[in-house]
Q: What sequence folds into this?
């Protein structure tokens, strides 16, 4: 079974702090993703990566950055945390799909981040 | 601009009956559609998918139907069980591995 592990289930930080969320997958997947989930808004993609040291912006990258130094690890960084970044953060990984097939994304259990 | 829409935030169904969850999309370039299920305090788990070249895919109690002309897909669960109570997200893919998710529908199956 694919295992995607997020380092913290719950995290409380203060406004202005630099926050690191860590995600590790054990299935040698090429793709890794960071989402945030908010009530009424579903899952929104923040950043994704197709390979080591490669990153692409998702739909809501503002205020965030990412790092992928190793294939199994994808870090999300809040450069200067703000209260509107209080949310559930979900990491996912998948193999690269080759048409016409699709490789589903496998998710971690999430980090509930509160910014005070 | 919400490209994938789930217009029903919640659905309540009696155990043993059919649950039908709906999803609409706007982009005709989507080539794959997926359904994910999410329990509280857990990450979403993949349930079933369908390619845009098909109109039906079945896996046990779960069937997904795709109507491309209406840009509409639906997930049927028959028979519904209490363990199916969760939030269901539909998602769409456009030629890459990036997914666009809907806002989710909370399904409650009661005895």
A:
């Amino acid at each position: 079974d694919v295992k995607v592990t997020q380092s913290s289930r719950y995290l409380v930080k203060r406004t202005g702090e630099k926050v690191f969320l860590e995600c590790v997958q054990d299935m040698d997947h090429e793709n890794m993703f960071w989402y945030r989930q908010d009530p009424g808004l579903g899952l929104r993609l923040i950043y994704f990566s197709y390979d080591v040291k490669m990153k692409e912006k998702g739909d809501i990258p503002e205020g965030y950055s990412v790092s992928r130094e190793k294939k199994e690890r994808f870090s999300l960084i809040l450069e200067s945390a703000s209260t509107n970044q209080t949310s559930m953060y979900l990491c996912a990984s998948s193999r690269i799909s080759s048409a016409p097939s699709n490789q589903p994304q496998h998710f971690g259990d999430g980090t509930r981040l509160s910014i005070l | 601009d919400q490209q994938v829409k789930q217009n029903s935030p919640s659905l309540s169904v009696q155990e043993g009956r059919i649950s039908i969850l709906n999803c609409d999309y706007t982009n005709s370039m989507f080539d794959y559609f997926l359904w994910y299920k999410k329990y509280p305090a857990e990450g979403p788990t993949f349930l079933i998918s369908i390619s845009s070249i098909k109109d039906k895919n079945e896996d046990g109690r779960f069937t997904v139907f795709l109507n491309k002309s209406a840009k509409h897909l639906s997930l049927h669960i028959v028979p519904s069980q209490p363990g199916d109570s969760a939030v269901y997200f539909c998602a769409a893919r456009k030629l890459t591995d990036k997914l666009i998710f809907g806002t989710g529908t909370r399904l409650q199956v009661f005895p």
Remarks:
- The mean pLDDT of chain B is 94.
- DSSP finds no helices and eleven strands in chain B.
